[in-house]
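Sample log: PadR family transcriptional regulator PadR.
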Amino acid sequence: MNVEDWKSQIKRGTLDFCILLLIKQRPYYGYEIISKLEQYPIVAAKENTIYPLLRRLLKEEYISAFWQESKEGLPPRKYYSITEKGNEYLNAMSLEWDNLLSAISEIKGGLNNG
């Protein structure tokens, strides 16, 4: 496995987390999520990854969706917001993420001190 493969594995394991973190702040529409994630290349993803993920999160009831009219005569946009179930899932993910980072930091610290 090379670094690009490893980065791909990291991305697959964290996109749900990143999307839920975003829409916890405020409702986002799909393309807006894609654009926001593009600011962080390690988690940037294309439409063919994000939209199926959003459909799965909807099906699992971690997020909900609503249509909102756009400005300037554009078609309505489908916005996504986090549900109570999604908040509980996100809180559990955050705890596990913090545990992971802590373990990695300790391991890296041991390498530097060993």
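Observation: Residues 17 and 97 are 9 Å apart (CA to CA).
Observation: The radius of gyration is 17 Å.
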